[in-house]
Amino acid sequence: MAGSPVIRVLQITDLHIMAQPGQTLLGVDTEASFRDVLHEAMSREKQVRLVLLTGDLAQDPVASAYHRLRDWLEQTGWEFCCLPGNHDDPQQMVTCLATPTIQYCQPVRVGRWQIISLNSTVHGSPGGFLATDQMDHLRACLTAYPDHHAVIALHHHPVKTGSAWLDTMVLDNRDEFLALIPTFPQVRLILTGHVHQAMDAVWEGVRLLATPSTCFQFKPGSERFALDGLAPGYRWLELHDDGGFSTGIVRLDQVPQGLDEMAGGY
Ligand SMILES: [Fe+2]
Predict the structure, then answer these.
(1) Could you tell me the pTM of the whole model?
(2) Which of 68, 130, 164, 239 has its C-alpha lying 20 to 30 A from 112's C-alpha?
(3) How far is the CA of 167 from the centre of ligand 1 (A)?
(4) What integer best gives the mean pLDDT of the chain?
């Protein structure tokens, strides 16, 4: 739909799909919960130009989990761009998800917008870091298309969340990342996963949005790991030619069956 005045984009995040169908995490069949969110989106959404999958696609980062995810995605007829989270294996994602309709960390330009996906993962660590190649890639994309409004998508949040335990796992080099943003005034939006909750902040005039997980949610403002009783969901975005955008979250009607709300971690 290049040239359309409004570009509809969805963000689906933190699926945590297990190695085998029916396996649960914190009592939740994460694949079933993701499927329910995907079906909700398919029933509501029309003219989706792109779906961003912003990490933790798998809890068990093995081929079987990514292959089943690929099969779910291919049923939609939509185009996807995925990036890894701390639970993912980037190489497995590249190998297992590669299809003509699923891209891995590729910049996507549509209309007057450029959507840039980054890999903020650190092997073996839950925290995030944008390595030199990712920072260089970001700079190159923004330099090449100064007249395109930009969305930057990454897994790890670049500002503190107010939850002490989550704030040990934000983007480690956030100062370097955030210092770059004002030098490219076309950046409109930074979009993240990882925190399993909706967040909406503004930094130097740029919106910072985080989005609920498709499985379980973390309670905002928590000192230690704590689950929230909110239902899973996804985010929609409408990008306008003039650089403005609107956004909102759609949640399912209920929390996933079996959710262990008293769980102390995972
Ligand atoms: Fe996650």
Answers:
(1) 0.96
(2) 130
(3) 14
(4) 96
